[in-house]
Amino acid sequence: MKRLTTFILALAVSFQAFADEGMWLPNLIARRIDDMGAKGCRLSAEDIYSINKASLKDAVLLFGSGCTGELVSPNGLLFTNHHCGYSFIQRHSSVEHDYLKDGFWAMSQSEELPNPGLTVSFLERMEDVTDVILYGWEPSMGDAARDSVARANSARLEKEVAVPSKGIRASVEALYYANQYYLFVFRVYRDVRLVGAPPSSIGKFGGDTDNWMWPRHTGDFSIFRIYTAPDGSPADYSPDNIPYRPRKYFSISRAGVKEGDFTFVYGCPGSTREYVFSDEVRYIGEVSDPQKIALRTKRLEIQKKYMSQSQAVRIQYSAKNASVSNAWKKWQGESGGVRRLGTVEAKRAYERRFAQWAARGPYEGLTERLAAIYARREPLYLAYEYFNETIRSVEILSFAWSVHSALELKRPVESMAKGFYKDYYRPIDEEIFAAMLDAYRSNMSGDYQPAYFKEQLALYGSVEAWRDALFASSIFSNPDAVKALTPSDIAKVEADPAYKLYKAFRDWLDADIMPELHAIDGELRAANRQYMRAQMEFEPERDFYPDANLTLRVAYGKVAGYSPSDAVYYAPVSTLKGIMEKDNPDIFDYNIPQVLRDIYAEGGHEKQPVCFLATNHTTGGNSGSPVLNADGHLVGINFDRVWEGTMSDLVFDPDYCRNISLDVRYLLFVIENVGHADWLFKEMDFK
Length: 687
Ligand code: ARG
Ligand code: ASP
Fold this sequence. Notes:
Layout: H1 2-12, H2 30-38, H3 45-48, E1 60-63, E2 67-71, E3 77-80, H4 82-91, H5 99-102, E4 104-105, E5 113-114, E6 120-128, H6 130-133, H7 143-161, E7 168-175, E8 180-189, E9 191-197, H8 200-203, H9 207-210, E10 222-228, E11 242-243, E12 262-267, H10 278-309, H11 311-341, H12 343-358, H13 366-389, H14 395-408, H15 414-422, H16 426-443, H17 451-460, H18 463-473, H19 479-483, H20 490-494, H21 497-538, E13 553-558, E14 573-575, H22 576-582, H23 594-602, E15 609-614, E16 626-628, E17 634-641, E18 659-663, H24 664-673
Antiparallel strand pairs: 1-2, 1-6, 2-3, 3-10, 4-9, 5-9, 6-8, 7-8, 9-10, 10-11, 12-13, 12-16, 14-15, 15-18, 16-17, 17-18
Bound molecules: arginine and aspartic acid (ASP).
Residues 618-623, 639-641 line the site of aspartic acid.
């Protein structure tokens, strides 16, 4: 327990500031408030987070399970991104009412559309529960016991605190590599209705061409409303429900932003790894990212080729293509960013200084231990990642596996098959099959090839011949036959060549890769926990924010442009003029709705702001987060980062790391001029 006490002491001291880097715990924001004030913020720590009075935290919500949203009216109205509401907008869309394409605008509360399955969660409170979670554990019991004690105590505490009938959910999360545990208590609402969404040609303007990039002109927002039972409690959808009455909602600033203005982002960043050992960064930047990028470049080329030949295929593959492309582009920025910054070398230099400090103390030998663990882990983890990006990305193979699992559980497969084949185009999958298997054969050594894979390759002589035989004989090439499968047909699936190939890989992973990988990961967790604690002792002056884990955080910085390369400077604010410059009816991503052209032609809108850049430290999950000014008023909605800065998940560079936000004034402009839904303005509070 002694070391834990030192650790907590280390946390309690107040520290120097690092330029705009950091995702801070809101309950400890008092530690940052002086620095925030020096940078222009006019709020108190209690304004931002309080459990005694209404504070800004009461207006921030987790939207679904991976985005953020914010309340903007006393009637439960909320904003999030278009890409966060996308699947719900899609579910309400049909050929007659294509809300994705044309947009959707409720003209009264009675026209708002329910979304079963969608929840929003508000944080009630968060607190350090480390002592409770580690109760019953002593260092002499070892690391494995620590994990299992923590797991059992967490489950017990979560159960104790949760009140399902009142929508109260509790979760215990590990911070600082499980040196600390926090309890998060949420109120979860289940009746969340779609109020408005712009046409995709605004909400997704620029598509994957502009994704992760600046200059950006995407109107990436959608609007929802939360409803409760008449007594105000969370409830399933019912026509009798009433709009949610929040404790707090954001006022909207119409004053806008300019270069240098203080801003902060209040939201739920998903995952970062700022404190990891140099070898992990080297693996990500030099091995994993480049390999995955190369594989995805092939997949994207194949998809694009067929998508450009047929409108129907373009629709079938647009969501799949977007998700393959999203990470593909992010990884390019990430590996380029750590290379440019020399992060691996910088970490190694830091580790040498650390090792000197650690000599003859309790952390002696820790860096060597980490290096040895990573060396054993790397080939195994690469094989696992390579499997995911090759074999698993062939649709027919992973689908064969899913069908088998469903049949094993005696589940019907008809609707699953319908969903799969609706968006399946066999020529794409055949080409991807050949490309991915070929990549696997050439890039993974024989030791990492399952025996079945080698046998079949030898049998057919080439991946193409194997492919032709497999697609010709597999039942999964025949949608009607798959839809008709019942649990008694399971043997038929087990004899199928698509299933057999996938299963051969799964069996090989389960036997030769995963058990060892899991054991190493256990060692790594323990070593990382020590290394985190040791770094905090090594640098007692530095304020360490915990890595992101989808818990609520505050990031602050200022509106700022950047220079992506020599002789180029990007200004931080984009305008409607830029949309008109990109407008091109022949390019899908840049074809704007006619109404926007007409409004622009009226004149006077050239300077209408659309998006802006700032130095706030954000990541995936921060999409939809409120971007607030010095008074805590809403000035934007966060939705992306610039790709030269996507290494911010590993290392933050103030010169390149910028978050991209939609200017809230463009949102208002679209509501008014495109949606004609200005009835919504009546419930908003403008500053
Ligand atoms: N890049 C942003 C994020 O990581 C936006 C993604 C929207 N999807 C897309 N493929 N354009 O999530
Ligand atoms: N676009 C991301 C999201 O959806 C945000 C980011 O990665 O910056 O959360």
